[in-house]
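Sample A.
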Amino acid sequence: MAISSINFQKAKSHSKAHNFREDYVSYLLEEKYQKQNEYCEFFPDRKKVFQSELSKAKRKGGRIPKFENSNWEAVVNLNEEHNIVNLRIVAHMLEHLLNIICTDIALHRDEGYVQKNGKVKYNYHAHLNFITYKDGRQNWRKEHIKPKTLSKIQTMVARYLHMERGKIKSKAIRLEHKQYKYFAQKLEEQKAALKPENDNQEILLKIKTRHLKEKENEILELNKKLKEKEEEYQLLLKKLKEKEEQKTVLPQNQDELIFLRKFYTKITNTELNLDLCSDVDYIAQMAIDGIIELERFKSTMRGDKEQERSINTTKNNPTMREKLK
């Protein structure tokens, strides 16, 4: 979407023929890409409008105003949706604000350039022509047109056309058609040169994101297993408490339970930084270590239980007691 802009300049002698496409224009898009232009003519002859105003003026000597100094045009940036009605409203606003006369309007949709990908970049704009000598005075002069007035015009045009206003006190200038085409093509070339690098960065980002997602899923799965193991541990501890013969093992079980709870709290409360693979790997390793330690503990308890049963069997077997003696 274009940014709103209106730029005043003296109209050239052939400007009307050029704007109304009566002259040959070399830099237009190919005919198959051109869209329909629009034109509006309030006064067919610009000079007659100037001479009419000059004849009505009550002059008291001095230099006679010249048509060349009173024939101005405003070039206005547009978007695709704008039409001649929008421009007539802008023209009427300028006539009232500056006390000038709009003679004709030309809206161009046949300029731009074709990008390397085959898409057309259109340069939508319009030329509004004005006679600035009116009521016996040249109204487009520095003493009448202050910077504040020009800024107000930019704001009003943006508002009337529903466009984003350009930056206030910007040093930007509107490019001529040849300059526009040249710089636009240069910009496309620069974008094309940067594209491979951008594509590589995008691929690397996708790979990293996928890797981090996989690690995150691993962490979630390990957390789930850890919770299941803790539930098993709680159930086992409950059974140990119910059996009087395993009271001697209980203090060790309590120590291990405290360790497991601390470890579980640590891993579940850890804030993951998924931009750092090292953090994710560290958390995953913690979860794996916890599960291994839990399995060792359960194995130790099973071993102690078997050993105790073996001792009790020996005590109750007279033959074995004799052999031990």
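Sample B, a different protein:
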Amino acid sequence: MSGKINQVLSDTLPPVVSWWTKPDVLATMLAQKRSASTRQAYEKDMKYFFATMFGVEANAEWVVRFLFLPQTQAFGWVVRYKSVMIDQKSGSESFIQSRSD
């Protein structure tokens, strides 16, 4: 799998439903982490995932769009992301595995 960025089409990540205005899922997840270094690492990983796989910034809207994907489709994106990380040699297999668990 190449490391090129995929173009996000409207059917790739579904639009946010009109009633979804709060909460900011990403901010909520990060706020629940006690360690500042863990928050920073998770935020960096999320930004890298969305930039690498969809060419967009990880923000509340895109995170919710991803969460609205059917489970098998979301899992497929995560598996492809792991493959991209391995292809780019972003880290060791065990490090990549810990990021994808």
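Observation for Sample B: The helical segments are 25-31, 36-54, 60-67, 71-87, 93-100.
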